[in-house]
Design goal:
This is EAL domain-containing protein. By secondary structure, this protein is an alpha/beta fold. The protein is built from 25 helices and 21 strands. The termini are far apart.
């Protein structure tokens, strides 16, 4: 058999799929031609194998995957007289080593291609075995017919028939045995003797019913009884036998009834095909298809089989599932390399396997650093917690890799409940969501599934995936909350607050979707849209104010300022300044009519690179407001270096003023902040004003502007403009 490097030595184009397929056929033909009984030359035999190689290639990439083509290839090998036992094993070796190498697609994951290849090997072996069996059964029937003909013609040609039957009996490639109706074995050929270990006296003279096996199918001996009573002519079963040394012989067994000249039952003829090697091959292929190649644990396929069986159980059965994800595994891979990461996974798998000690428990690897443990029974509420505790305990001991001690932590999501209520996909989704809750809580712990938390997570995921299309469909709109000048009570400006008119969930406030937009990066286009809409609205207000002229008392209508919130992600975006300038120039709004609000927490520890775009905007005349001041680690001395012109006090400062009398400590704090801000030439805006008493106290303390439900709730822009004109008169 050629190595991959030898096979690739052709002068043809290595990237041409047809050429790669021909090289695979060449390797295949060189492997099995020496053990094939054919009159073809090797090049002719290679051309005969090329269509079969093409069928394997197409089956490897078929969507949906269907291994039936590989069964046809196995049958075609038998038709091509590749019936030597080595033909199948060499073919499977070539397919295992070279099919993915020469026919695999680069865009498909290697693990998927290898899994498909294993299933193709299984199907090819099954097709080969079935074709060989049918060919053998044809020979068997010919033997049986010969035996019957020999007995019916005994009076005319006894000697010739006996000679012919004996030649077939002794030279057959399958085991043949004859027994009487009482089950006594009368005659066996050499092939059957060898199948049972080579000692004829251990076979001849025994009774058929002595060969019972625990894995016999229930109907096997029922069919035997019917045959010896003359109620059936033959039956076929797959039956195991114990050999003399205790090993098991697996056979395809065909038993036929032989009648005498009067048609009465007289003998039973057994034909046996040894399928032990093929069965072992099938078991090996099944193992490879259902177990992880790296750790040896059951893989996703076998785990889902067990989970679906557990969920389909009845009579009060329950299940418990632990979904484990290692904390910080990527950092280990990046720092120590993937080889060390693989060794770590093997050690983790061994430890997890030691936790699943009960027959009702299993551990599997889903992929990467994700593992699952399953337990079933009637008391899984306690058992699954114990299982999760054992897993965290065995992971606590350090693992030594390349002389370093690595401590492994894990986050576990637990789902437990009665069988029959949820699908396997629903259970795994809930476990995955719960695992991430454990990871968010710090890791190295387990959390129990919570239907309400699952629903919130599913809703968040749905909102996240719907965000891009929502922006394209125009589902967002803006409400405006007025900013009131505390000195004369007039509307000074408005804060733009974005809302989402969701088709299913109704109107959503920013708390529901802004964090999701931050996480996905959609906050940048969404923030630009908000800026465009708000600035355009402010420009409209300015035009309306110009047309309104002076009021009854000669007061000029004051142009409104618009406040727009900036998220931390927008602050880091390189196009912030250019986008803002572009929006202002397109609308014609003066920079001084725009105020950008930045949360205090976003500027904690900010370096000059982060402050530079804010300084550029401030130098243009755009006001910068420090929003939610007082909620973070306020560093008053740090205010001097920030390019801000407005402090927005958080509503927590005004809560104490809702009581009567007001909390004197809160009054002193606000008074001190206002004094400091004014000394730094900063204006002070207060959020959350809900009563006239609060408004009056804040005015006396020197606050400049305020907003809150006392003045107006956020609403459409036309209502605010009406309020503005009314206050200006």
């Amino acid at each position: 058999m050629m190595s991959p490097s030898q096979a690739a030595g052709s002068a043809a184009d290595p990237d041409d799929p047809e050429d790669r397929l021909r090289r695979f056929a060449t390797i295949w033909s060189r492997a099995i031609f020496p053990v094939t009984a054919t009159s073809l030359t090797r090049p002719e035999f290679e051309q005969h194998l090329l269509p079969l190689a093409r069928e394997l290639n197409e089956a490897l990439h078929a969507r949906p995957f269907d291994p039936v083509a590989a069964q046809r290839v196995g049958a075609a090998l038998v038709d091509a007289h590749c019936t030597d036992p080595d033909s199948l094993s060499r073919t499977l070796g070539v397919v295992d080593a070279y099919l993915v190498l020469y026919c695999g697609a680069d865009q498909e994951p290697a693990e998927d291609s290898r899994a498909r290849c294993a299933r193709l090997q299984h199907a090819l072996a099954a097709g080969y075995a079935q074709a060989l069996r049918e060919r053998t059964l044809t020979e068997q029937e010919a033997i049986a017919r010969s035996a019957l003909a020999a007995r019916s013609d005994a009076m005319d040609a006894l000697h010739a028939t006996e000679t012919r039957f004996r030649a077939v009996f002794e030279g057959a490639a399958i085991g043949i045995g004859i027994a009487d109706l009482d089950g006594n074995v009368l005659e066996v050929n050499d092939t059957l003797t060898r199948m049972f270990g080579g000692l004829e006296h251990h076979v001849r003279g025994r009774k058929v019913n002595e060969w019972a096996h625990p894995e016999d199918r229930p109907q096997t001996w029922n069919m035997y009884d019917e045959l010896v009573r003359g109620e059936r002519e033959h039956y076929r079963v797959e039956k195991p036998f114990f050999r003399n040394d205790g090993t098991v012989l697996w056979t395809n067994l065909t038993v036929s009834l032989l009648r005498d000249a009067e048609g009465l039952p007289q003998y039973q003829l057994a034909l046996m095909e040894d399928t032990t090697e093929r069965r072992l091959l099938n078991l090996r292929l099944r193992y490879e298809a259902t177990h992880d190649a790296l750790t040896g644990l059951p893989n996703r396929t076998l785990f889902f089989e067990r989970l679906e069986k557990a969920l389909a159980a009845a009579d009060g059965a329950r299940f418990g599932l632990c979904y484990l994800d290692l904390d910080g595994f990527k950092a280990i891979n990046d720092s120590l390399g993937h080889s060390a990461g693989d060794r770590l996974l093997v050690e983790v798998a061994d430890r997890l396997q030691s936790c699943a000690t009960a027959p009702v428990e299993m551990v599997a690897r889903l992929g990467g650093d994700e593992f699952v443990a399953l337990t079933t029974g009637r008391d899984t509420q306690r058992a699954v917690r114990d299982l999760a505790t054992r897993i965290l305990t065995v992971l606590a001991a350090p693992i030594t890799l390349d002389g370093r001690e690595i401590r492994v932590r894990g986050s576990i999501g637990i789902v437990e409940g009665p069988a029959g209520e949820r699908t396997s996909a629903e259970v795994l989704r809930s476990a995955d969501i719960t695992m991430y809750r454990a990871k968010s809580a710090g890791g190295n712990r387990f959390e129990l599934a919570d239907p309400e938390a699952d629903a919130r997570a599913i809703t968040r995921h749905g909102l996240t995936t719907a965000l891009p299309a929502a922006l394209e469909r125009g589902e967002f709109f803006i409400e405006y909350q007025p900013l009131v000048h505390l000195g004369d009570g007039t509307v000074y400006g408005a804060e733009a607050l974005v809302r989402w008119s969701h088709p299913q969930h109704g109107v959503l406030g920013p708390d529901h979707f802004i964090p999701l937009a931050e996480h996905t990066g959609l906050i940048v286009p969404l923030g630009r849209w908000v800026l465009q809409e708000a600035v355009g609205q402010a420009r409209f207000w300015h035009e309306q104010a110009s047309l309104g002229g002076q009021g009854e008392h000669g007061a000029a209508a004051r142009p409104l300022r618009i406040n727009v919130n900036l998220s931390p992600t927008q602050l880091h975006h390189p196009g912030l300044v250019a986008d803002t300038v572009d929006v202002l120039e397109r609308s014609g709004l003066a920079p001084g009519a725009l105020c950008l609000e930045v949360t205090e927490s976003a500027l904690i520890g900010a370096d000059e690179d982060l402050l530079k775009p804010l300084r550029q905007l401030a130098e243009m005349g755009v006001d910068i407001a420090l929003d939610d001041f007082g909620t973070g680690y306020s560093n008053l001395a740090n205010l001097r270096r920030l390019p801000v012109s407005v402090l927005k006090l958080d509503r927590s400062f005004t809560q104490g003023m809702q009581r009567h009398p007001a909390d004197p400590v809160d009054l002193k704090i606000v008074e001190g902040i206002v004094s400091l801000a004014h000394s730094l030439e900063l204006a002070v805006t207060v959020e959350g004003v809900e009563t006239g008493v609060q408004a009056e106290q804040l005015r006396e303390l020197g606050c400049d502007t305020a907003q809150g439900w006392y003045y107006a709730r956020p609403g459409p822009p036309d209502r605010l403009h009406t309020l503005s004109l009314a206050d200006a008169v």
